[in-house]
Amino acid sequence: MAVRLKPLLSLPVPHHFNYSPRPFVYFSKKSQRTISAAKMATSGTDKTSPSPTKIIDSHLHVWASPQEAADKYPYFPGQEPTLPGHVDFLLECMKEAGVDGALIVQPINHKFDHSLVTSVLKKCPTKFVGCCLANPAEDGSGVKQFEDLVLKDGYRAVRFNPYVWPSGQQMTNEVGKAIFSRAGELGVPVGFMCMKGLSLHVSEIEKLCTEFPSTIVLLDHLAFCKPPINDDESLAFSELLKLSRFPQVYVKFSAFFRVSRMPFPYQDLSQLLSQIVSSFGANRVVWGSDFPFVVPECGYKGAKEAASVIANQVPLSSSELELIMGKTIMQLFQGQWLQS
């Protein structure tokens, strides 16, 4: 008989909050002054605060440098990166931006070989938390791999990428349910990447949330919903908001360059953020950069500054902004980032 392991942590499932709709304020030259105020709100350097709020990035990637790949951590064939994403570069960017910690999501560049990210987690245990990639191999070996990554290597989240599932299979298949269920038992949040559109996968997410309500869910990059300009996009965004009925679902306010139709500072996302906070509550929204892909777009520091500008256009209160920029994800991963 299998031994039932105790959860790694007890994740709080928040009560649902209904916020009143917020006015949408367009970005203008006059609102440039809000940037400096926003920077102060998220800088973590308020001298009057007894415990400065940490800034935590909920979504970024690292991969081997070309030299590391040649020596020890090879790229998955056909997935060689075109951007630098090694950990020393990341640490430089985080220091410049004043970001205290991050959740590293296993990159497709190394696919199911987690050795590079594992080495980074061991190198910087107070700086980073790991999110592994679920392996949906039909023989079920991915379930054991997931458990080993969590219980032996210390990963504390797992990503479901529907595009690595076997052809014709859905994330609700036997392997998907086994990993999703086990994640709930271990207190490990599951991230969903819906790069080709939420509408393609929302029914799978709903089924998993309904069947396994104790498993926390993180929707990457606003579930890839852009400011809607047609009926299909309006429906997708409506589906995202309706997922707020599941108390276990959180939204990553991340990778602005992927979902905005405008250049930095991506002010068209303020209306989306307003509605997401109204539906989910700021306590279920977390900021993320999508490093290193964000670097050529607006720079890593720019990703943090854009979040502040967008939040001030909603507008959000300082306490709501603190939740989004770090407090919420620190609550999800209790015990991390306390010494970083």
UniProtKB/TrEMBL annotation:
The keyword RNA-binding does not apply. Residues 56-333 form the Amidohydrolase-related domain. The keyword Transport does not apply. Coiled coil: none annotated. InterPro entries: ACMSD, Amidohydro-rel, Metal_Hydrolase. GO terms for molecular function: carboxy-lyase activity; hydrolase activity. Keywords: Decarboxylase, Lyase. Belongs to the metallo-dependent hydrolases superfamily. PANTHER family: 2-AMINO-3-CARBOXYLMUCONATE-6-SEMIALDEHYDE DECARBOXYLASE (PTHR21240), CATALYTIC_ HYDROLASE (PTHR21240:SF19). This is Amidohydrolase-related domain-containing protein. It comes from Carpinus fangiana.
